[in-house]
Amino acid sequence: MKIVAKVSIEQVEVAGKRVLVRADLNVPLADGVVQDDTRIRGVLPTIKNLLERGACVILVSHLGRPKGKVVPELRLDPVAEHLSKLLGRPVRKLDQVVGEEVEKAVAESKAGEVLLLENVRFEPGEEKNDPELAARLARLADLFVNDAFGTAHRAHASTAGVAKHIPAVAGLLMIKEIEALTRCLEQPGRPLVAILGGAKVSDKIGVLRRFMQLADTLLVGGGMANTLLAAKGYDLGDSFYEAESLDLAKTLLEESGQSRCRLELPVDLLIAQELKPNASYQVVSPEAVPAGWKAVDIGPETVKEYSKAVAAAGMVVWNGPLGVFEVPPFHQGTEGVARAVAESRAYSVVGGGDVVAALEKLGLADKISFISTGGGATLEFWEGKELPGIAVLQEKTS
User: Fold this and answer.
1) Contact, 80 vs 93, CB < 8 A?
2) Is 129 helix (H, G, I), strand (E, B) or coil?
3) Which residues pair with 58 in a beta bridge?
4) Which is more confident, 361 or 251?
5) Is the pLDDT of residue 107 over 60?
6) Helix (H) or strand (E) holding 336
7) How many helices (H) and strands (E) does the chain have?
8) Do 170 and 24 share a domain, yes or no?
9) Domain boundary at 175, 202, 227, which?
10) Residue range(s) defining the domain that contains residue 53
């Protein structure tokens, strides 16, 4: 992927224009109340900038996975209410995504007003990037702004298709994401330490290979580490690993031996017989996992080793938990390394909802240099893939 600078909202005239903003308002709800407003707060600078400069803002977002059907509990009314409080001004929530009522409401809107369309994934054409839906969305506005980095790896009607019909530029959050993630690839601090966790090697093969070329040290945890340990010949008892990916894992280990990057795997493991809260556990070396037990976290010695690498880093990038952190006491590995990253002087970039949730739970999120709002999008960007929601945006001319 050739990384190019994109035009932002700050470089275009917006006064008197209707601006369609693709936001990521996919937030957790409980009993009709927003539980975590991080994503809503993320788009506030873009909305405020447009309003202050005389635009009418029309927001479009998805919520959950309704798969082209109207799901009442996934309507965006609670989001509109919460956003209105944060903005300190009314947010007019519309009950449809497109159609005559929407077009009428938009036609009546004025500069300084905010409208929120209904959950765009209620439309069956959204995830299919239906040209007709994209055209109908585009008719609502003079300008398209993509500020939803978390969905930028999806070629949907509201992320990519709409840009075929009206000028498209990046929101302020999108610009921050592109700049921070590009810095990791093009201007990495040294030593560069990459931490990769999560369940499957097969899901992250591209980014593993990218950082094996780019990083000085690659620290692996979670189910991914189990698969690599199994590929080295360890019998891991009843541990989860990808049996079908063992040949791939062996190839990765061979490639790491030829790389300047030091690949580190756990030297000890937290093992349990049951994956339930407060289950009893043991700490063993990888070669000592008994039958009937499963590796569910990195052990304390591994936390120490990984923390040493982090302490010496000039830059740290991290995606994916290092154990089953959502089930205590198997959160200890992720927590230990999270504390090391937070205390490090390195420029740190964290992406992926699980690790971000862990950092927020520990009260460490504000000690991370940059938290990406993307999961899959962050990984694909780092891997070097072209993200459709970014590719359609206007490029800066030198």
Assistant:
1) yes
2) coil
3) 20, 115
4) 251
5) yes
6) helix 332-343
7) 13, 17
8) yes
9) 175
10) 9-175
